[in-house]
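Q: Here's a chain of 341 amino acids. Please give me its 3D structure as tokens.
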Amino acid sequence: METAILPSSPSQTPRYAASARLSVAPMMDWTDRHCRAFHRLLAPHARLYTEMVHANAVVLGDRERLLGFDPVEHPLALQLGGSEPQVLAQAARIGADRGYDEINLNCGCPSDRVQAGRFGACLMREPGLVADCVAAMAAAVPVPVTVKCRLGVDDEHDYDRFRAFVDTVAAAGCATFVVHARNAWLQGLSPKENREIPPLRYEWAWRLKRERPDLQVLVNGGLATRAAVQAQQAHVDGVMLGRAAYHDPYLLHLLDVECYGGEARDRAGLLRGLRPYVEGRLEQGVALKHITRHVLGLFHGQPGGRAFRQVLSEGAHREGAGWALVERALAATAQAGRAAA
């Protein structure tokens, strides 16, 4: 881990359990450390997750590249992929030693790559193996071991089977389940289609919470508005935003205020809070484009939003691009907004 580049504050290290009320899903190619630094400014209390990292890569690969994060990202969970209990235990121990607050096992990704590797959503057909993995991980680390899963795979539409999976894994030491409230189709649907086509059944997560009140149940899938999130809060312990947090990041800020209190800030002020992080990374040789690609949705649906995206998209890849480009994007946004008023 490195010295914090963003200013720290007590609100950035809340009780970890409370942070479950709102979290941001692990998303491949999106929720990297730069994205998480931005999301932490927007949502000081929410729980953040890494992209999924295979346990073998953690054990054998470049750990700083794969696992490095800024301390202000806490509370932060490491999501692992894999199905070998001892390898997962070793990877979990490495993650906990580096300071992660939670180790999460992926039992929900439906891509061909994870199926070939016998991890992700196909593990829902092997609850005993998942239990062995969780037990090994839990024995290896002092932080919570959690599971992110689907309701089932393919044409399995049996709530009792879903609950039996949860019960088996819970008995091995998992007390928190993030439920993506759809089935995963392992044949015939792409990962994108798997996020959209299988019907949502939030009531399964609600029922699980009623029947297993000692478990912490978080719901994920299709939550793209404040009203949709509010509709879940009476039934489960927390909600996990996915692509909505990325495409409309200001929604994440508003939900953090609703869940934890405080006052909403304007978009430009929030973005300017990222300047110390950006300039610190630029000094380390990170290209601006790798950071600004995550902020393009900040003015989603707002007058001037297109101008904001255009200035950043056209300029961030140029050699020597720095914070001045962000200020130009904000100025163009304000000008376009005034013209539209």
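Q: Can you summarize the key feature?
A: Residues 7-14 have pLDDT under 50 and may be disordered.
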